[in-house]
Amino acid sequence: MDPSVALSLIVGILQGIFEWLPISSEGNITLYLTVVENVSPTVAVQLSLFLHAGTALSALAYYRDEVAALLGEIPNWRPDRAFDRDRSELTFLVVATLATGVVGLPAYVALEELVSQLAGGAFVALIGVLLIVTGFVQRGVEGRGGRRGTPDLVDAVLVGGLQGLAILPGVSRSGTTASALLLRGHDGPSSFRLSFLLSIPAALGAGAITTLSDGIPAISPAMAAVALLTSAVVGYLTIDALMRLVERVSFWLVCVGLGALAVVGGGVFLV
Asked: TM spans, by residue (predicted)?
Protein backbone atom coordinates (compact mmCIF):
# COMPACT_ATOMS: atom_id res chain seq x y z
CA MET A 1 0.00 0.00 0.00
CA ASP A 2 1.19 3.53 -0.77
CA PRO A 3 2.60 4.98 2.50
CA SER A 4 0.54 8.17 2.07
CA VAL A 5 -2.66 6.12 1.71
CA ALA A 6 -1.78 4.11 4.83
CA LEU A 7 -1.08 7.29 6.80
CA SER A 8 -4.37 8.84 5.65
CA LEU A 9 -6.32 5.75 6.74
CA ILE A 10 -4.52 5.52 10.10
CA VAL A 11 -5.09 9.14 11.10
CA GLY A 12 -8.68 9.00 9.86
CA ILE A 13 -9.35 5.91 12.00
CA LEU A 14 -7.68 7.46 15.03
CA GLN A 15 -9.73 10.64 14.69
CA GLY A 16 -12.94 8.65 14.24
CA ILE A 17 -12.29 6.87 17.54
CA PHE A 18 -10.48 9.45 19.68
CA GLU A 19 -12.98 12.27 19.03
CA TRP A 20 -15.61 10.55 21.20
CA LEU A 21 -13.21 9.82 24.07
CA PRO A 22 -12.21 12.56 26.54
CA ILE A 23 -8.49 12.14 25.80
CA SER A 24 -7.88 14.95 23.24
CA SER A 25 -8.01 13.54 19.72
CA GLU A 26 -5.96 16.50 18.50
CA GLY A 27 -3.26 15.96 21.12
CA ASN A 28 -2.93 12.23 20.56
CA ILE A 29 -3.00 12.41 16.76
CA THR A 30 -0.38 15.18 16.89
CA LEU A 31 1.76 12.99 19.14
CA TYR A 32 1.38 10.04 16.76
CA LEU A 33 2.31 12.11 13.72
CA THR A 34 5.31 13.80 15.35
CA VAL A 35 6.72 10.83 17.28
CA VAL A 36 5.86 7.85 15.06
CA GLU A 37 5.61 9.35 11.57
CA ASN A 38 8.25 12.07 12.08
CA VAL A 39 5.90 14.76 10.77
CA SER A 40 6.75 18.36 11.72
CA PRO A 41 4.71 19.76 14.64
CA THR A 42 3.23 22.48 12.40
CA VAL A 43 1.89 20.01 9.82
CA ALA A 44 0.77 17.59 12.56
CA VAL A 45 -1.37 20.27 14.25
CA GLN A 46 -2.82 21.42 10.91
CA LEU A 47 -3.81 17.89 9.93
CA SER A 48 -5.29 17.01 13.32
CA LEU A 49 -7.44 20.17 13.23
CA PHE A 50 -8.46 19.53 9.62
CA LEU A 51 -9.72 16.04 10.51
CA HIS A 52 -12.21 17.45 13.00
CA ALA A 53 -14.43 18.35 10.05
CA GLY A 54 -14.84 14.63 9.34
CA THR A 55 -16.09 13.75 12.82
CA ALA A 56 -18.28 16.87 12.75
CA LEU A 57 -20.07 15.25 9.81
CA SER A 58 -20.35 12.05 11.89
CA ALA A 59 -21.98 13.95 14.76
CA LEU A 60 -24.26 15.78 12.33
CA ALA A 61 -25.45 12.46 10.89
CA TYR A 62 -25.83 10.85 14.33
CA TYR A 63 -27.78 13.79 15.78
CA ARG A 64 -29.65 14.60 12.57
CA ASP A 65 -33.09 14.50 14.22
CA GLU A 66 -31.98 16.78 17.07
CA VAL A 67 -30.30 19.17 14.64
CA ALA A 68 -33.39 19.30 12.42
CA ALA A 69 -35.56 20.03 15.47
CA LEU A 70 -33.21 22.80 16.60
CA LEU A 71 -33.18 24.38 13.15
CA GLY A 72 -36.98 24.23 13.13
CA GLU A 73 -37.06 26.39 16.26
CA ILE A 74 -35.22 29.28 14.59
CA PRO A 75 -38.32 30.99 13.05
CA ASN A 76 -39.98 31.12 16.48
CA TRP A 77 -36.88 32.26 18.41
CA ARG A 78 -37.32 35.49 20.39
CA PRO A 79 -34.60 37.26 22.43
CA ASP A 80 -36.91 37.80 25.40
CA ARG A 81 -37.60 34.06 25.56
CA ALA A 82 -34.16 32.86 24.52
CA PHE A 83 -33.60 30.66 27.56
CA ASP A 84 -37.13 29.34 27.94
CA ARG A 85 -37.08 25.58 28.37
CA ASP A 86 -38.30 24.87 24.83
CA ARG A 87 -35.63 27.08 23.21
CA SER A 88 -32.78 26.93 25.70
CA GLU A 89 -30.70 24.39 23.79
CA LEU A 90 -30.79 26.42 20.57
CA THR A 91 -29.74 29.56 22.44
CA PHE A 92 -27.05 27.64 24.32
CA LEU A 93 -25.54 26.33 21.08
CA VAL A 94 -25.60 29.75 19.38
CA VAL A 95 -24.09 31.66 22.31
CA ALA A 96 -21.55 28.94 23.09
CA THR A 97 -20.46 28.80 19.44
CA LEU A 98 -19.93 32.58 19.43
CA ALA A 99 -17.92 32.32 22.66
CA THR A 100 -15.85 29.54 21.08
CA GLY A 101 -14.98 31.81 18.17
CA VAL A 102 -14.07 34.74 20.42
CA VAL A 103 -11.67 32.58 22.45
CA GLY A 104 -10.65 30.07 19.78
CA LEU A 105 -9.43 32.44 17.06
CA PRO A 106 -6.81 34.17 19.25
CA ALA A 107 -5.88 30.76 20.71
CA TYR A 108 -5.33 29.44 17.16
CA VAL A 109 -3.04 32.36 16.30
CA ALA A 110 -1.11 31.83 19.54
CA LEU A 111 -0.88 28.09 18.83
CA GLU A 112 0.62 28.67 15.39
CA GLU A 113 3.22 31.01 16.89
CA LEU A 114 4.00 28.57 19.69
CA VAL A 115 4.42 25.60 17.38
CA SER A 116 6.75 27.54 15.11
CA GLN A 117 9.04 28.42 18.02
CA LEU A 118 9.15 25.21 20.07
CA ALA A 119 11.57 22.39 19.36
CA GLY A 120 9.99 18.99 18.66
CA GLY A 121 10.76 17.57 22.10
CA ALA A 122 9.45 20.64 23.91
CA PHE A 123 6.24 20.53 21.87
CA VAL A 124 5.70 16.84 22.69
CA ALA A 125 6.30 17.56 26.39
CA LEU A 126 3.83 20.48 26.30
CA ILE A 127 1.13 18.21 24.88
CA GLY A 128 1.90 15.78 27.67
CA VAL A 129 1.48 18.45 30.34
CA LEU A 130 -1.87 19.53 28.87
CA LEU A 131 -3.04 15.89 28.75
CA ILE A 132 -2.15 15.48 32.43
CA VAL A 133 -4.04 18.65 33.34
CA THR A 134 -7.03 17.44 31.29
CA GLY A 135 -6.95 14.12 33.13
CA PHE A 136 -6.94 15.68 36.58
CA VAL A 137 -9.78 18.04 35.61
CA GLN A 138 -11.85 15.00 34.66
CA ARG A 139 -10.84 13.26 37.91
CA GLY A 140 -12.12 16.26 39.82
CA VAL A 141 -15.64 15.98 38.37
CA GLU A 142 -16.08 12.21 38.72
CA GLY A 143 -19.33 11.57 40.53
CA ARG A 144 -20.46 15.16 40.00
CA GLY A 145 -23.57 16.22 38.16
CA GLY A 146 -27.16 16.94 39.04
CA ARG A 147 -30.58 17.18 37.49
CA ARG A 148 -30.50 20.54 35.75
CA GLY A 149 -32.13 20.21 32.36
CA THR A 150 -32.09 23.76 31.04
CA PRO A 151 -28.74 25.38 30.15
CA ASP A 152 -28.48 29.10 30.83
CA LEU A 153 -26.33 32.00 29.65
CA VAL A 154 -23.53 31.26 32.13
CA ASP A 155 -23.38 27.67 30.88
CA ALA A 156 -23.16 28.84 27.28
CA VAL A 157 -20.39 31.40 27.80
CA LEU A 158 -18.36 29.14 30.11
CA VAL A 159 -18.59 26.04 27.94
CA GLY A 160 -18.07 27.95 24.70
CA GLY A 161 -14.97 29.67 26.06
CA LEU A 162 -13.50 26.40 27.28
CA GLN A 163 -14.20 24.81 23.91
CA GLY A 164 -12.22 27.64 22.29
CA LEU A 165 -9.22 26.81 24.50
CA ALA A 166 -9.51 23.16 23.48
CA ILE A 167 -7.90 24.09 20.16
CA LEU A 168 -4.65 23.53 22.09
CA PRO A 169 -3.44 19.94 21.48
CA GLY A 170 -3.69 17.98 24.71
CA VAL A 171 -6.82 19.77 25.97
CA SER A 172 -9.77 17.43 25.45
CA ARG A 173 -12.70 19.31 23.93
CA SER A 174 -15.32 16.78 24.99
CA GLY A 175 -13.73 16.17 28.38
CA THR A 176 -13.43 19.86 29.21
CA THR A 177 -16.88 20.95 28.03
CA ALA A 178 -18.67 17.97 29.57
CA SER A 179 -16.78 18.48 32.85
CA ALA A 180 -17.90 22.11 32.94
CA LEU A 181 -21.53 21.11 32.41
CA LEU A 182 -21.27 18.47 35.15
CA LEU A 183 -19.87 21.05 37.56
CA ARG A 184 -22.78 23.30 36.62
CA GLY A 185 -25.24 20.63 37.75
CA HIS A 186 -26.19 18.87 34.50
CA ASP A 187 -26.31 15.08 34.45
CA GLY A 188 -23.81 12.93 32.54
CA PRO A 189 -25.89 11.98 29.47
CA SER A 190 -27.13 15.56 28.97
CA SER A 191 -23.61 16.95 29.38
CA PHE A 192 -22.11 14.72 26.71
CA ARG A 193 -25.06 15.23 24.39
CA LEU A 194 -24.76 19.03 24.59
CA SER A 195 -21.00 18.74 24.22
CA PHE A 196 -21.23 16.73 21.01
CA LEU A 197 -23.97 18.92 19.53
CA LEU A 198 -21.74 21.91 20.25
CA SER A 199 -18.82 20.16 18.54
CA ILE A 200 -20.54 20.25 15.13
CA PRO A 201 -20.23 23.99 14.31
CA ALA A 202 -16.93 24.26 16.19
CA ALA A 203 -15.27 21.36 14.39
CA LEU A 204 -16.52 22.47 10.98
CA GLY A 205 -15.21 25.95 11.77
CA ALA A 206 -11.81 24.62 12.88
CA GLY A 207 -11.44 22.63 9.68
CA ALA A 208 -12.44 25.62 7.57
CA ILE A 209 -10.12 28.05 9.36
CA THR A 210 -7.20 25.65 9.07
CA THR A 211 -7.80 25.15 5.35
CA LEU A 212 -8.30 28.85 4.61
CA SER A 213 -5.29 30.05 6.60
CA ASP A 214 -2.81 27.26 5.87
CA GLY A 215 -4.27 25.38 2.91
CA ILE A 216 -4.81 21.62 2.90
CA PRO A 217 -2.20 20.03 5.20
CA ALA A 218 1.02 18.94 3.50
CA ILE A 219 -0.36 15.81 1.92
CA SER A 220 -2.05 15.59 -1.45
CA PRO A 221 -5.70 16.77 -1.73
CA ALA A 222 -6.71 13.19 -2.57
CA MET A 223 -5.06 11.81 0.58
CA ALA A 224 -6.58 14.59 2.67
CA ALA A 225 -9.98 13.58 1.30
CA VAL A 226 -9.28 9.92 2.18
CA ALA A 227 -8.36 10.86 5.75
CA LEU A 228 -11.42 13.10 6.11
CA LEU A 229 -13.81 10.48 4.71
CA THR A 230 -12.27 7.76 6.90
CA SER A 231 -12.69 9.86 10.04
CA ALA A 232 -16.33 10.56 9.13
CA VAL A 233 -17.21 6.90 8.47
CA VAL A 234 -15.34 5.51 11.48
CA GLY A 235 -16.70 8.29 13.68
CA TYR A 236 -20.28 7.49 12.72
CA LEU A 237 -19.79 3.76 13.28
CA THR A 238 -18.18 4.17 16.71
CA ILE A 239 -19.92 7.15 18.31
CA ASP A 240 -22.73 5.23 20.01
CA ALA A 241 -20.54 2.49 21.53
CA LEU A 242 -17.79 4.87 22.63
CA MET A 243 -20.22 7.29 24.27
CA ARG A 244 -21.55 4.40 26.35
CA LEU A 245 -17.98 3.38 27.17
CA VAL A 246 -17.14 6.87 28.41
CA GLU A 247 -19.83 6.53 31.09
CA ARG A 248 -18.17 3.39 32.50
CA VAL A 249 -14.41 3.90 32.16
CA SER A 250 -12.20 6.37 34.04
CA PHE A 251 -10.53 8.01 31.07
CA TRP A 252 -8.77 10.52 33.31
CA LEU A 253 -6.24 7.77 34.03
CA VAL A 254 -5.67 7.31 30.29
CA CYS A 255 -5.06 11.05 29.89
CA VAL A 256 -2.60 11.17 32.77
CA GLY A 257 -0.78 8.04 31.58
CA LEU A 258 -0.45 9.22 27.98
CA GLY A 259 0.55 12.68 29.18
CA ALA A 260 3.28 11.29 31.44
CA LEU A 261 4.68 9.23 28.56
CA ALA A 262 4.69 12.33 26.34
CA VAL A 263 6.47 14.41 28.98
CA VAL A 264 9.14 11.74 29.44
CA GLY A 265 9.46 11.24 25.68
CA GLY A 266 9.74 14.96 25.05
CA GLY A 267 12.41 15.23 27.72
CA VAL A 268 14.40 12.43 26.06
CA PHE A 269 14.22 14.25 22.69
CA LEU A 270 15.48 17.45 24.32
CA VAL A 271 18.40 15.63 25.93
From this structure: 5-23, 43-63, 90-111, 117-137, 194-212, 218-239, 251-270
